[in-house]
């Protein structure tokens, strides 16, 4: 296992709550960290940019108070997600605030993380990078990241199309550092399975949408609870990068999800012209992963993590059927 030393003894589960655009905020992050899992949010969720200082201050002070009054179960570390694509005008501004607040974990996406690695390592923080392929993994490692997040088939939002079995095994052939595995993890059994496959953390977003502390709209939460994996569409049309969305939200935006099959980014203009508008990813068209078929309620984060701990412990204690037969 490659759990960073700074995280040791502060986790009740080897789990990172993934940063979800428009859905992850201080309330969700604080609840996750107090429950013993790493909570994160995209810096772009704090608007205007000056609000990022307020969010980081609130999280740091609240978790410090929690740790002072709960020394027997200190909070898990928190983190932020920095989008490194050239379309993000706040990169440098947000990075400066992250460094000033000494954020323990920085998750980088869509770009080269070398400058972020240098800045975050300057105060002893950790940098994990999102990847969807072996090529991306090697590039991130060359930039000096501390960990990799393998975003595999079925993950909510931007996701790859590789099986977690294939991608994780191949990356483990050349990387023994921390790996978080993303792709339709919805309960403690799936988390344990990811660990057995060779991951150090699970990376879970969609399951946390359907919690009381999540900032997602009520309609978004309702669809996550109501729908199943068959109700997900994987398309690059709305953001320019392939991502998983709820078909019901696509229909609500005036588009038949079946029309999206085979449509690439360059063909979206005709599609949007037909409805007279361009739906915005995440705001008008909601994201979710393929694991929604087993999500049936909207608990608090504390209740959800407690349930997952029981599921995880049961999975650890109960060997697979083949192993039971072999040992009989």
- Helical proportion? 25-40%
Number of domains: 2
Strand content: 5-15%
**Main β-sheet: number of strands, strand sense, barrel status?**
8 strands, parallel, barrel
CATH class of the largest domain: Alpha Beta
Unreliable sequence segments: none
What string, H for helix and E for strand, traces the elements in order?
Answer: EHEHEHEHEHEEHEHEHHEEHHHH
Précis, in short:
The chain folds into two domains: 5-216, Aldolase class I (TIM Barrel), CATH 3.20.20.70; 219-275, no CATH class.
Give a quick set of tags describing it.
eight-stranded parallel beta barrel, 2 domains, 11 strands, alpha/beta, 328 residues, 38% helix, three-stranded antiparallel β-sheet, 13 helices, TIM Barrel
What do you see in this structure?
The chain is an alpha/beta fold. The protein has two domains: 5-216, TIM Barrel; 219-275, no CATH class. 38% of the residues lie in helices and 15% in strands. It has 13 helices and eleven strands. The protein has helices spanning 26-35, 51-69, 91-100, 114-121, 134-142, 164-172, 188-197, 206-209, 218-226, 247-252, 268-275, 301-317, 321-327; strands at residues 15-17, 38-42, 78-83, 105-109, 126-131, 147-151, 157-158, 179-182, 201-204, 232-235, 243-246. The protein has an eight-stranded parallel beta barrel, surrounded by six helices. Strands 7-11-10 form a three-stranded antiparallel β-sheet.
